Amino acid sequence: MEFKEAVKIALQSLWANKLRSVLTLLGVVIGVASVIAVVTLVNGANTYVATKFSSYGADVFTVSKMPQFITSAEDYERFQRRKDILFPDYQYIVDNCHRCRGIGAQQATVGKIVRGTESVTDSSIRGYTWQMPSLQNLNIMQGRGFTEADEEHASHVAIIGTDIQDHLFQGIDPIGQDLRVDGGVYTVIGISEKQGSTFGASQDNWVAVPLTTYQKSYGTSKTLTIYIKAGEAGPRLEAAADEVRVLVRSRRHDAPNAPDSFELDTNSTLVGFFGTITAIFGSVAGGLALIALVVGGIVIMNIMLVSVTERTREIGIRKALGAKPNDILMQFLIESATMALVGGAIGVMGGIIVAQIITLVAGFPSTVEVWSVFLGLVMATCTGIFFGVYPARKAAMLDPIVALRAD
């Protein structure tokens, strides 16, 4: 039998028994859709995180009390026992780091922004040194950023995100206008470029004020994060990071052989950690998808056995007309592979649709990779071939005389 004819028979069988076909292919569809959705979401998350962290600059690293990602309660408690990183520590690095090309610090809390009768809650209130916007690549699209004078005099000025502009200054130019940040009055001097959302959470609901002003309102005892620009990635970054590590260790009196009592993170460290987390998530989800494919394959094998029973007389006629066992074997293998491939194609489309729905509803980033589409189709086809071998072999081994007697 020609390949084209075998494929045609398989498609006719699927169309003739629509309900049975849907139930047969359901496992393959779910399995492939799961693979495509997971790969699409994981790739989207990795790409997004890599882009976001790299936007800080490949030559920027941070010094903080605690890492940005903590995986256990025990680690959290251990990190909490560390000494806070305070403004004098930041100033010490500023005064003594010779390889640093830019140094900034920030603190943050959550508060309420009010203007007139309008308000925005759960906003990020940030205390920035004057270099911080450039270290975080925050582009000021209107107005200006902070200056050394703003920091030195603890000026009551603010830079706002676009969410604050949209909610509190509709139809009004915010520059020069006043707003209240947790009760304190600040004059808007700049508006940041829109940052978008991360995993459904807006990155534009924030107000930044000079760090010295921030500490007058919220106190100086809370830990801060220090951002340091090396000027260039590679050896220069490593040299600057080593110098800062020595300075901070000496400042905090860490013993020579003791581990660091602080975290020094580069963008590659953070991206690599996130990549590890998404890889674990992908492995677990991939395992569940594999189980769905196995279940789908078993259902295909069962239906193919039923098909062999239903078409026993047809098999006998083909053999009587000269068909060889290999011809019968290939016919049923092609049919089972075609069935699985159809299910795989539906699963690919379903997985992409599911990923896009999650992106629209939850804001979780997704990126469709061409290789994942081919992977889903290949997995489905291989599942159909693997689980179709036994029914195909059973059909090929039928005795033509016995087959012709079948009703």
State the gist of this model.
By secondary structure, this protein is α+β, with helices and mostly antiparallel strands.
Question: Compute the gyration radius: what is it?
Answer: 32 Å
Percentage of β-strand residues: 15-25%
Helix percentage:
55-70%
What is the domain total for the residues?
2
Report, as a whole number of angstroms, the end-to-end distance. 23 Å
Question: Describe it for me?
Answer:
- The chain has 407 residues and is an alpha+beta fold.
- The chain folds into two domains: 3-51 and 272-405, no CATH class; 100-226, no CATH class.
- It has helices spanning 3-16, 18-55, 73-80, 87-96, 132-135, 148-152, 162-168, 211-218, 235-252, 267-310, 312-320, 325-362, 370-396, 400-405; strands at 60-64, 102-115, 118-128, 140-143, 157-160, 178-181, 184-192, 197-198, 201-202, 206-210, 225-229, 263-266.
- 36% of the residues are buried.
Secondary-structure blueprint of this entry?
Blueprint: H1 3-16, H2 18-55, E1 60-64, H3 73-80, H4 87-96, E2 102-115, E3 118-128, H5 132-135, E4 140-143, H6 148-152, E5 157-160, H7 162-168, E6 178-181, E7 184-192, E8 197-198, E9 201-202, E10 206-210, H8 211-218, E11 225-229, H9 235-252, E12 263-266, H10 267-310, H11 312-320, H12 325-362, H13 370-396, H14 400-405
Parallel strand pairs: 3-10, 5-7
Antiparallel strand pairs: 1-11, 1-12, 2-3, 2-6, 2-11, 4-7, 5-10, 6-7, 8-9
Helix pairs in contact: 1-12, 2-10, 2-12, 2-13, 4-9, 10-12, 10-13, 12-13
